[in-house]
Structure formats: C-alpha cells, structure tokens
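[Automated response] Your request has been received and processed.

Submitted sequence:
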Amino acid sequence: MKTDDFSFELPEEQIAQFPTGNRGDSRLLVLDRASGRLTHSMVRDIASFVEAGSLMVFNDSRVRKARLFGTACDTGSEVEFLLLRRQGPDVWEAACTKAKRQRPGRLYSFPEGVSGEIVDAREDTRAIRFSPPIGEDYLDRVGHIPLPPYIKREDLPSDAERYQTVYSKNVGSSASPTAGLHFTPEILDSLSAKGIESAWVTLHVGLGTFLPVRSERIEDHLMHEEEYSVPAETAAAVARAKSQGRPVVAVGTTSLRTLESAWAEGGLEAGPGSTRIFIYPGYTFKVVDRLFTNFHTPKSTLLMLVSAFAGRQRILDAYAAAVREKYRFFSYGDAMLIR
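Generated structure:
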C-alpha cells in the first residue's frame, strides 16, 4: 500500500494556529462508518452521539515542557532538542534540529549553567547527557511547550494550560494526546449523566505517534516504541463492557493504540507495557468500537489508523467534506466521532 494513497489537499489557513476560546467550542463531524453519512455538530454536544452504556477510554498522560534550546559550544549555533524520555539519571533520548551535525562528543550549553553532551546517535534520535542532571522542575522553568511544527508561532504562557487535557496527571508526553483537549468537566459530567462510563489509560506520546512516514510503501515504515500503562480498573471495565455487548469508545488514537496493544487472548492485560503497533487498512480491531479523534496530517500513521477503522475512502470523503465546510485541522482544530 502506497503512502501517497493517504494524501489530501488542505488550505493552509485551515490549520489551526490557536485553540478555540473555550474547550468544547470546536466543531464535531460525526461519521457513520456503515453508510458514510456525515452529521455536523459541536463537541459540547458529544453526549448526543454516544450510546448510553458505552465505555469511553481517555489517555491521562501529561505533556512535559519538552522543547529545550541549547547553544553548540563549537559554533555558537542554537540547537533545539525535543526530549522524548529519560534513559538514566542524567541521560535523555531526544530528537533535535540539524540532526546530522549533532554527533557524539558534541557539547552544548543550556540555561542555568547546565551543559550537555551527545553520547549516542541513532537514526532519528540522539542520547544526550546533562550535567548536572535535569528533571521536571528544570524543564518547567526553562523548557517550552512542544507545539507541533505546523503551528507557526512560539509557545505562549496560555499553551501551558490549553495544550494539556483537563484530566492529565501522568507526566511523560512529548506531544499532547490532542483529542482530549476538547473535554471540559461539564462535558465529562454530561457523559456520565447519560450513563456513559469513563476509564483511563496512559500512553506517553513520542515519535511512534508523530514521526512522519518517509517510506514509499507504508509497510516499510518503522514505528518507534512508546510506553503505556493500563490500570486494573480499566482492564476490568473493558472486560465488563465487552461481555455485556456495550461499545468501547477510544478518545484519541493513543487510547486506541493502547487498548489494541494491551489486548491478549482472553482480555485486556493490566499493567505497564510498550508498543510499536502500526495500524493501517487490513487491521482487525479487537477492543475499540467507536473513535473520537482530531483531524490528522496527510500521509501520517494516524490518518492510516483512522482509515483502517472507517475505510480509506470513507475517511478521505469525510476529510474533503470537512475542508469544504471550513473545519479547523490538526492539534488545536476540530474533531470527529467515528461510529
């Protein structure tokens, strides 16, 4: 299957550069997978489109201020690092700008007298050792919110709150699980009032979610590993829902990938894990029956995932309708519910 088969045209002005004034005020496109029927609504009215008794599963990962700017000691040039995960007390895995120039042994200076050295180079990432070691407190002071590159502006103080879900609690993501950005306590209450159950998983968003597909054939794309955790309560809730024939609704592709990764013969396995799961057309879903998600970038693994869930042509037709109707796209944009 060709990567080019998952392309679509999008006017640049429809790429959302800022969130809506209030969470929940984004538009909602509801897609019926069987018929292809589209319904236009608002996210704040999502309870109207989710069946009573459904189980909705949210990703509660919290975004760290993972963008860190350093100065190369040999040239004085600025280098941007996106910290992905800690590999030891003083070593972090990171993506970086001008990656081919960032070789083992290169030294950098960071704010507050911190120094760094590249100690290992991989195809897409680098390992960098910080002295003294840095942690979340340091990143909270000098790091930046890791807005994606299609948002053509610097992060603002307001992004520190709006690029987090209201229920985020487990720090570890290098990008937001953006489907959850739409939810407010009031929307969550409206779901509960309808008899819709909520459960939580954690997947820390990294390169496995947002690395572009560079291969001509999607089957040749290599997914990067991401860490997740499934609470015992969530595994039990999924087991009850499946045994009772109630729909499982994944809020976001990260929740979906966690559920599908943790499924073993006989049920959902609780506990920590890691995944490289790559879902594209032809995949058989084992857990998830409905999907709430944002609009995704062309040729991305996430567009391939929703195409596997609803059918490639159904998705491309829905995206074309969203473009015609001037929906806002990507992280701070509008949303879809695929039923």
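Summary generated for your ticket: The longest strand covers residues 78-86. Residues 312-324 form the longest helix (13 residues).
If you did not submit this request, please reply to this message.
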